[in-house]
## 1
Amino acid sequence: MNNKLPAHNNSNDTITLDALIVGAGFGGLYALKNLRDKLGLTVRVIDKAGGVGGTWFWNKYPGALSDTESFSYCYSWDPELLQEWEITTRYLTQPQILKYLNHVADRHDLRRNIDLETALTQARYDEAAAVWDVYTDNGNHFRARYLITALGILSASNSPSIPGIEKFKGIVYHTSDWPDNATLAGKKVGVIGTGSTGVQVITSIAPIVRHLSVFQRSPQYSVPIGNGPVDVTYVKNIKENYSEIWKGIKNSTFAFGFKESKKSVFDVDDVTRQQIFEDAWNYGGGFRFVFETFTDIATNEIANQYAQDFIRKKIAKIVKDPDVARKLTPHDLYAKRPLCDSGYYQTFNRDNVSLVDIKSTPIVQVTETGVKTSDGVEHELDVLIFATGFDAVDGNYKCVDIIGRGGEHIRDHWESGPSSYVSVATSGFPNLFMVLGPNGPFTNIPPTIEVIVDWITELVKHSENEGYTSVEANLDAESNWTIRCQEIAEQTLYSKADSWLFGANIPGKKKTVYFYLKGLASFSEELRFIQENSYQGFSFGTEANATKRTATTQIKQGDMA
Ligand code: FAD
Ligand code: NA7
């Protein structure tokens, strides 16, 4: 996605709202539904995209798919839609998810409150009026009491600058800004990046391109995804048990809809252990492989090695050329986001695919006709694809101006790493609520978004009903939350691996904690505790000159489900 936003125009037209929501993905759409239809607020959503869907609007690259299973990669708040929406495959492709989110927007009449192709450029808090002044790239000025940012944690793309890129005469794509008219058939294509996205795009395009050069910096542990059509019994079972399934999801750690294992790798003998891995490999799913098998793969190095060894042996069996197999084999911790694929390692048995290990022979420059590596080889390309990921979590906050109390910029507030109180609010930025801001749960995302949006809705309702004009996280509550997230992270192996989960993928980015790694159930407990204790950690204000509610409907007790 294009992260560079034009400077805002000043315009005389001011639109006054109760709440402005930025982002029309899973988060922003549900926030609109709740604040408008449950609280009766006047709300508008803006998104720089040309359509709703967020991630699924932008990431249209071949092979794009969610690796959360279909039944849990959706909203649970519309039980009728859960019954009506057809489940045909175990996982959902990008077009299927985009269709679903567009359907939700139509079904709930959300579009009338959404402005597309409208980018937030600056948001400035007016302390006296307790209101946000928000400016957009197309000259709009909104004055809104609440600013809800649903900017996405995997939304600001990472495009590494490689010397000579401007000279390349072929076409350059980033997977997160994929055009509808891209054609790859019969072309010499290069892909930089072998994360979740790279694995998907590589596997998908290998059969159609003339030649595919994969530029790999780090080899990956990946297991089969196990995608395919599902039968009537599978669907019937899900639909008949959906309310139980969702209860299970929201009471679990990773919210993927499977039962997380309570068994240690050390509880079983080696034959049983191998069989459990083999069964998980055959059934498919990255998160299932790590968390449905055993409880300690992500926390204990020896347990982790058992899983590593299993995958390494699979790679050796699958990949025919021993030199390619060697390059594809990881030896570090298995502690990045778990990957799964539709035949990734097999792809390297194809004659038209070559693996370039850019750790041993780094890319030195892009030339007019391809990519040159340090061994002097020039890899000829018509198309170069960046599958280089995202400036995750706070990336979209850093490329706009969000200015809080006393003129403090959020970039400065987050100088030593982005922080929040329960991922929702940050001190010095009253009435700004983030949908999955820094240090929120690392899970299947839609269920977590629901929990967070519901909680923000309750908080706004409380504030409105009590006659407050501002709500703000206290600095000590925020600091304590950061420490808590750090302590939890240190108990896992994730903190020992270099990945976007800890900001390690972006040169110069602070390597710190970006997630609450104790899971959704535990996070929900934290939220419940705060709410039941008079929103402990928040301060409520009654600014004398505050801008008043614009909506005429009052929030009635009991309006909220
Ligand atoms: P997004 O969907 O990212 O939406 C954010 C929106 O904010 C975007 O539309 C963007 O245009 C808009 N925006 C940002 N900045 C501005 C601005 N300044 N002005 C206006 N608009 C702005 N999650 C899972 O749980 N399971 C998966 O299997 C999974 N697969 C994924 C696969 C890919 C390829 C990617 C990229 C992500 C995947 N994710 C997955 C994560 C995914 O991002 C979330 O599941 C979910 O879609 C996030 O929704 P959101 O509303 O929080 O953010
Ligand atoms: P990831 O997981 O961050 O993967 C990005 C890949 O790009 C990874 O292999 C990186 O290598 C590689 N990369 C990044 N920068 C460079 C440079 N400068 N040179 C060479 N290679 C580079 O992003 P994805 O989009 O795959 O996945 C992100 C999430 O989105 C994913 O978990 C899903 O939820 C959807 P590295 O491993 O850092 O050595």
## 2
Amino acid sequence: MEKIVALCKRRGFIFQSSEIYGGLASTYDYGHYGVLLKQNVKNEWWKSLIQERDDIVALDAAILMHPRTWEASGHLEGFSDPLVQCLGKCKRRWRADHLREAQPEGELKCPECDGDLSEPKQFNLMFETHMGPVADEGAKIYLRPETAQGIFVNFKNVLGFARKKPPFGIAQAGKSFRNEITPGNFIFRTREFEQMELEFFVPPDEAEQWYRYWREERFGWYKQLGIREEKLRLRDHDADELSHYSSGTADVEYEFPMGFSELEGIANRGDFDLTRHQEFSGQKMDYVDTATGERYIPHVIEPSAGADRATLAFLVDAYDEEEVEGRERVVVRLHPRLAPVKAAVLPLVNKDGQPERAREIYEELRKVMPAEFDTGGSIGKRYRRQDEIGTPWGVTVDHQTMEDGTVTLRDRDTLEQVRMPAGEVGPELAARLAA
Ligand code: GAP
């Protein structure tokens, strides 16, 4: 993980937030390549749900929601973790359930200084703030701890315009906030993060079948974007792990440097959410089939992923070190569709008209894909930089280009170089990206 953190800083993917003030714990800022990578992760998620199928519609609800939402959802009452504090030297706070996993037997001890621990207290993870100028109880609102509730409260609005009937889904990606007791492992667990959530509404008797379907579908999404299969697993929750609303949950887990951990949860939420919002709002939340007159509250299958967590998994999985001709090479083998930059156009030397010709090729290429033009430093140094930001292809302009119009196309992973006419590079790379 330290190598990933160092690479992210060195190459402008991710920085510690407010670093000049000493940093804000477990909060991160995305730099240029990090923004592009995370955006590509989200784009692939949207594409798989919206472009490649026609039973899901998009939504972008506000982060601030009516406080009754969180009463109905159960978050005000139950969205808490058991907090213990060290009574010894370090006074640090821990999640009792996490400590129990690491210390399965006997009395829990502080992992930092081996001190005794306080009795567990439930700690609500929602961030509170106030709406308007008076910070009294009546003005209290919350930063949403999940995007899902924005979807449930809009169920009727969407049903009204989307001409959909169950089974159909509503997808939303956006920021969520949780005052985590023990954030950590870089961007794996932070207090501000992005979720990509789908709520898939189905007739009650189809819930199990759709739950099985989405487990497989979402597992396949990570594989298809290049994550090695042996690093992924689908783990069913035991009965005592299930949330209050769930009759079945499975996690897609990835083997991060700290071990297998959750990437995404797929839950069968039953009719819990819509029923609760119907109860708390007094508004009907059922679906009426105009053809048959049948009326029911749909059940919900929810694949809920983290955009930052997925970005971390793609980076960790892609990171590689190898020796090439006696020198160490760090290479980030991101799937081309996720790579922030698809191709770098590089003149071999900064003279003899090569930079000008390379610039022309770059101007053509960037009309069809994100590309970079780089003249800074030796060709080896420029390749190393592109390898570290995961650029799958390098287009090199050399003396032969000036004679016969061909360039070399370098493959990031195999290091193979092939010559081809400069005009063929764009269509060739576009075809490879689409494959
Ligand atoms: N609506 C259901 C829900 O929010 P969750 O398992 O609490 O379920 C879903 O969260 C996903 O959101 C997780 O699998 C993870 O990818 C991401 N996530 C949750 N808490 C996070 C945190 N503190 N930091 C980064 N990602 C987080």
## 3
Amino acid sequence: MRIEIPRECERIGSLQIYGLQKVYELDAGEGIHGQDTVIERIPSEVLYDRMREMAIVVPVKNERLKLIEGVLVGIPSPCQVIVVSNSPRGPVDRFNLEKEALENYGKFTGKKIMVVHQKDPGLAKAFVDAGYTELIDEQGLVRSGKAEGMIVGTLMAKWLGKKYLGFVDSDNYFPGAVLEYVYEYAAGFAMNGSTNTFVRISWHSKPKIMESSLFFAKWGRSSVNSNMMLNRLLTHFSGFETEIVKTGNAGEHALSVDLALKLEYAAGYAVETHHFINLLEKYGGIIEPDDPKALQEKITICQIESRNPHMHESKGDDHVEDMIDASLSVIYHSPLCPELLKREIMENVRQRRGEESPEEIAPVRMYPSLSKLDLDTFLAGCDEALNFGATTIRA
Ligand code: GDP
Ligand code: CO
């Protein structure tokens, strides 16, 4: 792969946020890893080395089997796949259909696929025993939601001994785009060292039909809003206006497992924006960190612009509005958020919601960092529960 080196960088405490990096060649062949002025060439074997240590988590809820299979087709073979499903088990057992389809697919490819159901009682028990009860609902099972599925996926990656963790949604129509995301995750780790790197993808374009012809939109409404407010927040602290954040709510992202275990997770669709906020809270040196040693570490956010168009299942306007609210809520309720920005966020909510807008945007549920969970107990619980029952593991 050939990628440009970052042009800009914002430094806040021990966090550095790189500007968007363009990809110049998806596959640059084998050979020497090096920089030629502003382009870094990362040979394929270096990418594969990272992929061998990477788990790709695919969250699933009620997606069409053909779409899920397409996503798996795109994940390069060195990666471990972890499918976390929250599809219903009745009246039609959708999860069983998914499992059968994936097992069958696994036979043809020999791919390393692990499938786990979010509502697996053994999994819930491992969380309870490890003292992470925030994730458990009234039925005693893991709560529903994408972020909740991501937490499960993160811990599965740890259980399988992986070093890196990437996420790709299961409703992506283009296997080629998925393949590209994983290459870019690997490239981000290859360019920035392994332990404290966070790679976030900004799609080059999203195809839409406008007046019966194809139009390649650059920004979705949801990303426009969260990027704008995150940039305002950075501007507030640096005193210099910035537009560096392009991936505030990027669903396609990857990070080291160690870093993933240190971060808080906001419920549902606020998770990606909150990761940004939580990095600023923990490493920005703006508020007192819970762990003062954190400020000695260097954390890098690397943003890469993908080349394939991104096309996923359309889930309607209400869904987009809810996603915007969730993203803005985590910014609003952060101890970092200044009064001025809070007012701007509420203005934004009022413009979009009109009559229905609340006095104050509701907070979203927040899950504490996984460092609170007793990892050894949890992993022992997984050994016990996950080798049978609702879960399949292929070597
Ligand atoms: P969007 O792409 O951000 O608009 O959101 P989607 O509705 O497409 O959801 C993103 C991904 O999360 C998709 O792959 C969904 O199938 C998956 N997903 C949604 N809700 C859940 C859930 O409760 N649990 C799990 N495990 N996955 C979910
Ligand atoms: Co989607």
## 4
Amino acid sequence: MSFTVAIIGRPNVGKSTFYNRLVGKRDSIVDDISGVTRDRQYGVSDWNGKVFNVIDTGGFVPRSEDIFEAAIREQAQIAIEEASLIVLMTDVTCGITDLDAEVANLLRRTKKPVLLGVNKVDNSARLYEANEFYGLGFAETFFISSITGSGTGEILDAIAAHIPKQEEEGEAANTIPRIAILGRPNVGKSSLLNALLGENRNVVTDIAGTTRDSIHTLYNQFNMQTLLIDTAGIRKKARMMENLEFYSVIRVFDAMDEADVCMLILDATQGLEAQDLAIFRLMVQKKKGIVILVNKWDLVEKDHKTAKQYEDAIKAKLAPFNDIPILFISALEKTRIFKAMETAMQVFERRKKRVATHELNEWLQEMQDAYPHPSNKGKHVKIKYVTQLPLHYPALAFFCNLPQYVKDSYRQYLENRFRERYEFSGVPIAMYFRQK
Ligand code: GDP
Ligand code: GDP
């Protein structure tokens, strides 16, 4: 199940500092167009085994003074409708501002959990001043310092307490494959859906466990039966361009969390941009099956080398994990769109593949014979055995004498060879090294 936390509040209260605490390491992306590095605004957090999506809405607010207030009000509204839990962030050094009070009023009316964060409470003098924020009337009020980390554990505990116990993703043996169609606005998601379905459009709205509002379409052609999850309708609902991305991200999270395989649609005339890469990284992190479809291929002037060059360029940007099927399609001309579905189904099957333990261990022996782990700070790492964990995505547990000395390069070596041997194109693989 998808659980998304939205952090809202005025500029400079410390939303992004808090976000970075939640999502862990500060991971930034480079914007292809401007060449500047900017912080990623959404990611995945894991606290006490509860996994949830986090969105820092600050990144979506225009900097301009005269419109940011309206944008923040609107974000509060969108968060009320779309997020699972809202953190309203405030700044103790400013006291309660009019906008804080106004947004708090909006948020108090929702039944969704709202946690009030009073940030920059770095010392005991400020703790005293922070008491005024109880006046905003939230039962769950936390005095925190996002910079020092003080109090952030408590608010994380409170967030986690609101998350229902997470069951293993819905791959009970007989569910049909779920394929999400994802990508930026205008890349051609609706066109692809229409091209695939033709007249056979069969929109499913009442399948248990499907996400409210996202469009589910049963695809039942050419011996393939799948549920297509579509986020194309997003644009029609989002009212203001400034918040389109914030709105879209919540929907993308929902669709992605539900899917077994994600089709990432790109626009051939634009290539792979920072935003596409951010979505791709999330898919990898969530261990979803992935297919990349470069749409509008009809618009590209090409010779026999173009596709290969284009593919290489994308793979260079995806690295290190780029063992992904990439297809060049045209939704408009219906070129290779069935091939795209077939490929998604193959990825679905691969993601379920199990390699028998004895076979895995023969493979591991062979790998270590061919290339033993190089000594690391004088330590000799020996991997004793490997087993595939019973998860809904491929996950390998390697048992070894000194797991903390396993080199990244060796991990990569094993993953690459494993992929070559067993064919896992489009499927992220988890690898754990454990003490034995
Ligand atoms: P945002 O605009 O709400 O995302 O705010 P930022 O996270 O960018 O933070 C704005 C400024 O407040 C930065 O200079 C931060 O270093 C600072 N800041 C954030 N959290 C704290 C805190 O807990 N204590 C103090 N003293 N400063 C903080
Ligand atoms: P969405 O926002 O991702 O759902 O994108 P749409 O399906 O609405 O497509 C955006 C625009 O791109 C529309 O004008 C489509 O006609 C156009 N388009 C979509 N697919 C193709 C394609 O394969 N080739 C060309 N030339 N145009 C396309």
